[in-house]
Specification:
Length: about 200
């Protein structure tokens, strides 16, 4: 971690930061229970623990005032008719937002709040997506051939709450239907009190 102002490059066509401190790889086995088609999930897992997405991060202190940032790459693919996607999370400190800048590809950001609101917004190369404080967020790659790649920036003190989404899922799923993404209700979604 540097203690003087620094720069790095994001080069078109490569889009991996020229400097980073950590490289997280998330594979299919870490998404147990997240895909609605459990038999398609098991069948795909039997063929191997596929790489779903990668996160390149620049480390900064996890305190208010700092801005954590990096680049995520969500690879293309399907589990049944559901696209490859990130686990998704709330920020532990709910009053923290996040900015995403899409560098390449196409996808959907699936979002919801504990108050019952939901939204699904497009990722497309060059667009900026603002995730409001209190909104859980999951990135879905809706291309079957191209990586979805984005830069993210969020407050140092945000923290991550994965457990809530692992337990209840998101209200909305993005499915590949008739050659295009379709947003549908998640039949297995249940709220904190089973609502
Ligand atoms: C962190 C930010 C992203 C995600 C990354 C992977 O607040 O939203 O860096 O961590 O895209 O997603 P997930 O849901 O596995 O953390
Ligand atoms: Zn986040």
């Amino acid at each position: 971690m540097k203690n003087i102002p620094f720069t790095f490059d994001l080069l078109p066509g490569r889009w991996i930061p020229t400097e980073y401190d950590s490289h997280l790889k998330r594979t299919l086995s870490s998404m147990q229970g997240q895909y609605q088609n459990a038999s398609a999930y098991s069948a795909l897992l039997e063929q191997g623990d596929r790489l779903l997405y990668e996160v390149y991060e620049l480390h900064r202190p996890q305190i208010a005032g700092e801005l954590l940032h990096g680049v995520s790459v969500v690879h293309p693919g399907l589990v049944g008719d559901e696209y490859f996607m990130t686990k998704g999370h709330y920020h532990q400190v709910r009053e923290t937002g996040e900015v995403y800048y899409c560098l390449q590809g196409q996808g959907k950001m699936v979002m919801e709040t504990e108050a019952g609101e939901w939204a699904v917004e497009d990722f497309r190369a060059g667009n900026v997506l603002y995730v409001l404080p209190k909104w859980a967020h999951r990135s879905v790659n809706t291309s079957l051939t191209e990586d979805l790649i984005f830069l993210f920036i969020y407050p140092g003190n945000a923290g991550h709450d994965y457990a809530t989404i692992e337990q209840q899922g998101f209200r909305k799923l993005v499915l590949h239907r008739a050659g295009a993404p379709l947003v549908v209700d998640n039949p297995r979604w249940h709220g904190p009190q089973g609502k």
